[in-house]
Amino acid sequence: MALRSLATRKTLTLALKSTRLAQSRALQTFSLPDLPYDYGALEPAISGEIMQLHHQKHHQTYITNYNKALEQLHDAIQKGDSSTVVKLQSAIKFNGGGHINHSIFWKNLAPISEGGGEPPHGSLGWAIDTNFGSLESLIQKMNAEGAALQGSGWVWLGLDKELKKLVVETTTNQDPLVTNGPNLVPLLGIDVWEHAYYLQYKNVRPDYLKNVWKVINWKYASEVYEKESA
Amino acid sequence: MAATTSMVTSLTFTIPSLGFRLPTRSYPCVKPQRRFVRKAASNVITATYELKAPPYPLNALEPHMSRETLEYHWGKHHRTYVENLNKQVVGTDLEGLSLEDIIIVTYNKGDILPAFNNAAQAWNHDFFWESMKPGGGGKPSGDLLDLIERDFGSFERFIEEFKSAAATQFGSGWAWLAYKANRLDVENAVNPWPSEKDKKLVIVKSPNAMNPLVWDYFPLLTIDVWEHAYYLDFQNQRPDYISVFMEKLVSWETVNTRLEKAKARAAEREMEEERRRKEEEEGKPTNEEDDDDDLEIEFLEEKRP
C-alpha cells in the first residue's frame, strides 16, 4: 500500500526531474594516471628527475587547472553566461590539451627491458616503410621537425583516418593533434617543451630527440594503429 | 657596435645602395646612424651582430639567478640566436640593418619571415640582461613611479598585474612593461584623443619571440618566461622565479632611463607630425620623397672617406 502512494505520478515526475538534475550537475573530474614504470626506468635516455617533475608537477598542474576550468565552464553554461563560456576556451585547450597529450606520452614510453626502443613490426612497421621509406627516415623527419619547432609544442606521428596514411605533424603549446585535422589520430607524440628535457640535455634539444627513440614504446603505437585502421 | 641599451639611438634606416627601402616615417624611433663595422684589411663594409655580454659577471645575480643559468641562457641560447641570425642575414637585403629594423621588416605585418625569430630573440635577450642588475629590485622613484601609480593605481597593483601576465603567458614567451605612445592613425582627421591619453604605461605579454617593437610600443622592462630561463633554478615553479625577479633583480634605473628616452622620442614624433600637418594645411606638397633623398645623400657623403 505504501508503495502505491509513493509511486503516484507527481512523485515519479519529481524523482525523474531530480535525477536529471543530478546527472547534469555531475561533472567528471580527472586525476593523474599512474605511470606503468618507475621514474628511473627510462634512464639514461630520460632521467628519473625529469620523469618525476614532468609527471607529478607539470601533468598534475594541467589536470588541476583543467578540472577547475571545467567546473567554471559548467557553472557558466548553467547560468547561460556566454562570455565566460567563451573566455574559458583557452584555459580548457591549454590544460585539457596538456592532460590529453601527456596521458598519451606516458604510454608512448617504455623501459628498454619492456620493449622500449624495439622497432615496430606488423602492419605499423609496414605502413611506416610505405609512407616514409624506412623507420630511420621517419625518425629523421620527426627529429628535424621537433628540433625546428619554435618555442613549446609536440611532434607527432599520426594516422589520417580519412586519407588512410601516416603523417608527421607538429602542434604548438598543448594543442592536441586533432586540432591539426579532425581525422588525425595520434600514434606517437614527443614532448618538445623545454621541461621535457632541459635538466638533462639543456639547450641541446637534438640530443634529447636522438636519445628518446631508445625508449619509445612502439607496441602501444602499433595497437592504436591496428585498432584505428581496422 | 652601438649599445643596445636604448632603442632610441640604435635604430637606423635604409642602405641606399641595396635599393631596399624602409619607409622611415613609419618607425617609432629613427635616427640615421652608422651601424657598420669596417673589417680590417678590407674595403668591404659588412655588419655582423655580436653577442653582447650582460653588464655584470655571470655569477653576479646569484643566488637569485645562478651562474649556471647565465652560462646556458646567455652562453648557449642567446649566442645561438645571434650566430644563426648572422648566417641568415649574410648576403641578403637584411645585411647591414640594425637589429630593430630587421625585427620590424621580418615581422612583415604578422606574416613573419625566417630571420624574425633569431633577430627578435637576439634583441629580447640583450634587453633582458640589461633589465636586471645585482642587488636589483626594490621600488622605482620619480617620474617612473608617478606614471606607474597613475596608470595602474599603485605600485602594488602594477606588480600584481605584471606577475600575472608573466605567469599566464602560456608556453614560451615574455612579459613586458611598455610605454605606449602610438597615436591613432587617422589620416586626414585630427587625432580624437587628447595626447595625454596616448602616453601611458601598459603591461603586455607575447609568445615565443614576439616583442612590443612590432606594435610600435617602447619596451621598458621584460622578463623571459621561456622555461630555459628558470628551469635550472626553479624547475616548474615559474611564479617563484617571477617573484624573485621582481624583488631582487629588476634594475629600476635602467627602466627609468628607457622611459626618459621613450618620452623624448614620443615628443619628437609629435612635433614631426605637427610640422607635417601644418605643411599639408598650408598646401605645401609633402616633402617625403625629397626628405628621404636628402637623408640618403647625407649617408652617402658620410660613407666617402
UniProtKB/TrEMBL annotation, chain A:
Its cofactor is Mn(2+). Residues 29-110 form the Manganese/iron superoxide dismutase N-terminal domain. Destroys superoxide anion radicals which are normally produced within the cells and which are toxic to biological systems. Destroys radicals which are normally produced within the cells and which are toxic to biological systems. Belongs to the iron/manganese superoxide dismutase family. Pfam families: Sod_Fe_C, Sod_Fe_N. Homotetramer. Its EC number is 1.15.1.1. It comes from Gossypium hirsutum. The gene is LOC107904849. InterPro entries: Fe/Mn_Superoxide_Dismutase, Mn/Fe_SOD, Mn/Fe_SOD_BS, Mn/Fe_SOD_C, Mn/Fe_SOD_N, Mn/Fe_SOD_N_sf, SOD_C_sf. GO terms for molecular function: manganese ion binding; superoxide dismutase activity. Keywords: Manganese, Metal-binding, Mitochondrion, Oxidoreductase. It catalyses: 2 superoxide + 2 H(+) = H2O2 + O2. Mn(2+) binds at H54, H102, D191, H195. Residues 121-223 form the Manganese/iron superoxide dismutase C-terminal domain. GO terms for cellular component: mitochondrial matrix; mitochondrion. Its main location: mitochondrion. This is Superoxide dismutase.
From TrEMBL, chain B:
Pfam families: Sod_Fe_C, Sod_Fe_N. GO terms for molecular function: metal ion binding; superoxide dismutase activity. It catalyses: 2 superoxide + 2 H(+) = H2O2 + O2. Residues 263-305 are annotated as: Disordered. Signal peptide: none annotated. GO terms for biological process: response to light stimulus. Residues 263-287 have a biased composition (Basic and acidic residues). Gene3D superfamilies: Fe,Mn superoxide dismutase (SOD) domain (1.10.287.990), Iron/manganese superoxide dismutase, C-terminal domain (3.55.40.20). This is superoxide dismutase. It comes from Gossypium mustelinum (Cotton).
